[in-house]
Amino acid sequence: MDSIIVTGNGPLKGEIPIAGAKNACLTLMPATLLSDEPLTLTNAPRLSDIRTMSQLLGSLGAEVSTLQGGQVIAMSSHALTSQRAEYDIVRKMRASILVLGPLLARFGRAEVSLPGGCAIGARPVDLHLRALEAMGAELDLREGYVHATAPGGLKGGTYEFPLVSVGATENALMAATLAKGTTVLKNAAREPEIVDLATCLRRMGAQIEGDGTSTITIEGVERLHGATHPVVTDRIELGTYMLAPAICGGEVTCLGGRRDLLAAFCDKLEAAGMTVTETDKGLSVARGEGDIRAVDVATEPFPGFPTDLQAQFMALMCIAKGKSVLEENIFENRFMHAPELVRMGARIDVHGGTATVEGVSRLKGAPVMATDLRASVSLILAGLAAEGETIVNRVYHLDRGYEHVEDKLSAVGARIERVTGR
Ligand SMILES: CC(=O)N[C@H]1[C@@H](OP(=O)(O)OP(=O)(O)OC[C@H]2O[C@@H](n3ccc(=O)[nH]c3=O)[C@H](O)[C@@H]2O)O[C@H](CO)[C@@H](O)[C@@H]1O
Ligand SMILES: C=C(OP(=O)(O)O)C(=O)O
């Protein structure tokens, strides 16, 4: 199994290209199931989660090919052979549940394994199911699978989500494009990935209004057609690399970055003492002479501070001057990086959904292990600021969400390498 070795060093300087968003691509790919014409995605990230989604779509009989080294994904669902998503693939990746809405909308039936929980929380899918029921779906849970039918097709309805869910909004939005009549989704997620999905669906002929707000209205159409769509920039990869010069000094431009994707995060970075500048190329981040200041953060649905950047921001707060309080409001178990950061000399107290971090002047390298994706990269960031060598084990989590992390960081001067089979 691979490990990443990071050796703390001085300021970083240069440019880091930001890839297309994993979380957008993972919902755009199932959208291919809504049409018998081809859907092509450009600016796709090259990640193991994307390969898992390709495998899942392939198991349903879709044709999926990657071009230009994986940056283009060409898909066609004209000859699907199955409407059943098997446990063996679904268990690898929770986003697999996103095939449910499209299959049900197009074929009137689907069987999808329940994904189960994961390291960061229980993550039920009840809201995905309730929203589909509001469109007339009949659901039965048997042998670990959701058996869904809509014999006469889905019908438009109104559904108000009791809490904001990105995935449930995506599943319902895709299903509603082919439902008869008008669907109104209230308290919908507003994430840029939702807007990207709606933009792609409109390119395929869907009639959608209100994406990016909390009420989305969809007028069902008879059929969707083929399209080509560029995947939106990965705001979480962007925020992660913006933290690198914050942690070890210097100035880095994240190519393709946009402030509107991450406004709440940029505000916090500036409050901590960084300068963030938007240019034609992307977002430039520079650290001046002074100390990083402690800043409190509470995670929220978009446009709030993203939970997917909480672990990485904690790495920065570990070396800030003063005490910061980080509140995790989305997932019930998303502080597993804290004990590993403590092994590197950080001072962190976790009480339920709150972590209090007392900054130290220097972290110390150590062998560490991560149990989820963002936790893994937070340990790499911490390693950039630590004295000596940090060895991050179990990097398969990292490969779910970061392409060529070691190449991107070493190109701006970080001392980081991947070791195979250690
Ligand atoms: C592939 C993908 O896009 N993943 C992102 C997506 O995950 P995902 O779509 O799974 O996250 P949700 O927005 O659905 O989850 C938000 C909260 O709602 C709860 N919930 C969700 C659905 C449901 O049916 N019932 C329920 O109770 C979850 O347990 C969680 O506590 O949004 C999260 C929140 O921004 C991000 O951290 C993930 O990176
Ligand atoms: C939690 C994440 O992903 P997933 O929803 O695929 O587990 C993430 O991207 O940080």
Work out the radius of gyration. 21 Å
Per DSSP E runs of 2 or more residues, the count of β-strands stands at 26
The rough form would be described as: elongated
Rounded mean pLDDT is 96
- N-C termini distance: 6 Å
Output the strand order for the largest sheet: 23-25-1-26
Bound molecules: uridine-diphosphate-N-acetylglucosamine, phosphoenolpyruvate
Count helical runs.
14
> Which class best fits the helix and strand makeup?
alpha/beta
Strand content: 25-35%
Binding site for phosphoenolpyruvate: 22-23
GO molecular function, one term: UDP-N-acetylglucosamine 1-carboxyvinyltransferase activity
Protein name: UDP-N-acetylglucosamine 1-carboxyvinyltransferase
Keywords: Cell cycle, Cell division, Cell shape, Cell wall biogenesis/degradation, Cytoplasm, Peptidoglycan synthesis, Pyruvate, Transferase
Keywords:
single chain; 422 residues; alpha/beta; four-stranded mixed β-sheet; 14 helices; 27% strand; elongated; binds uridine-diphosphate-N-acetylglucosamine; binds phosphoenolpyruvate
Walk me through this protein's architecture.
The protein has helices spanning 22-28, 48-59, 87-90, 100-107, 126-133, 166-176, 192-203, 235-248, 263-271, 310-317, 337-343, 373-385, 396-401, 405-410, and strands spanning 3-7, 12-17, 39-42, 63-67, 72-76, 84-85, 109-113, 138-142, 145-149, 158-160, 182-186, 207-209, 215-219, 227-230, 250-255, 274-278, 282-287, 297-298, 323-327, 347-351, 354-358, 363-364, 367-369, 386-387, 389-393, 415-419. It is an alpha/beta fold and 422 residues long. The strands form 7 sheets. Strands 23-25-1-26 form a 4-stranded mixed β-sheet. The model has no long low-confidence stretch (mean pLDDT 96). The chain binds uridine-diphosphate-N-acetylglucosamine and phosphoenolpyruvate. Phosphoenolpyruvate (PEP) binds next to helix 12. Phosphoenolpyruvate binds at residues 23, 94-95, 308, 373-374, 401. Cell wall formation. Adds enolpyruvyl to UDP-N-acetylglucosamine. GO terms for molecular function: UDP-N-acetylglucosamine 1-carboxyvinyltransferase activity.
